[in-house]
Fold Maf-like protein.
Amino acid sequence: MLQPLIGKLNDIRVVLASSSKQREQLLKSINLKFEIIPSDFEENLNPSEHTFSDFVENTARGKTSNVYEKLKNETPKPGMIIGVDTMVTFDGKMYGKPKNNEDAIRIIKDLTQSGLPNDVYTGVAIWYNNKIHTFTEVTTVYMAKLSNEEIESYVSTGEPFGKAGGYGIQGIAGTFVERIEGDVNNVVGLPLCRLAKELKKIMAV
């Protein structure tokens, strides 16, 4: 994100509809001025009724709309609201955040013991000028094969919790991610390059 885009964004009230520390750090890294208003949107969409892209985009849209309703009567009004949802997919199934240790172990076993890659889908919904624009970015992740002992040790660190697919590529999981195809920031939780391209189109910069 370079001028004049970042300058134009910093002239309006930008809100990130997420409590994700990873997304917060990514936006801070580009010197964007923004505030965090977490969404209360109930993430209860039925995966069987959506494609992977539709699922993350519709969830992101729900988060953005939820925060807009919270802020629409405030002064100053928000100029932009960004909602995001990330999901890991493997073998035709979606993997969200692990519910407990057993769930985390099951997920990491699936992702690391087959020899096949997983795909990270991030849906982004941007409210701007009374319209919501959405897009999806996909990154493919190849992981090394882990033993049961290594998986249990990883889960015991607590890193898998709060992360889609039970792993954080920017943390310990970086030691067993062999390679990726696509934007690494997308795996962290926000595809900065694609976001910049979409914002340029939306704001006609």
About this structure: The chain has one domain: 5-203. DSSP finds seven helices and seven strands in the chain.
